[in-house]
Design brief:
Number of strands: 5
Mean pLDDT: 78
CATH superfamily of the domain at 26-152: STAS domain
Shape: globular
Strand content: 15-25%
Helix content: 25-40%
Length: about 180
Amino acid sequence: MAPHSEFETTPSPRRELSSLCGRPDPKDRLVCCRRSRGRSVVLSVRGEADAFTLPVWRQEIAEAAEDARAKGGGLIVDTTRLNFLSWRTLATLAEDAERFGREGVPVYLVNTSFTVFRLAGADARVARLPIHSTVVSALTRLELGRRGSPPQLGTRHQQVRTAVADPRTSGREDGYSAANGRGSG
């Protein structure tokens, strides 16, 4: 039998009961794993982040931000294992990230989806949310911010280095183009 991943969860009896009784539970569709990395908190999410799971999403983000505040660090929200991330959920994260940032808790999103970058180019709130391609790059940026280099509050998501050819990016393999608002084209 293969070792268990840190992201695997065992359904609680309440979850099993809610599913058997026919009452949908948003926690069945959005699973969160919170862990500490130094003074920072990494919140990894799996499943679907949509209107149905939005209350759970916001609660988990708020609790993780409070943990990060207590440690004197930042919050990294890793969405690379989500099956679906709605625009509304992403916009809510961006709004909450601004508020937490004013309260001293920088928030970074980890995501590699071209759709998210297109949304960032179209929505000013999302454009202000720092987006990284890996948890390591987000942690590095947080650490640099603590050492005196100001954290990038960026509208230009320069940290993302996904080398995938996409015809929508004017043929450039690095995903940057003037058309999608990332880079100089």
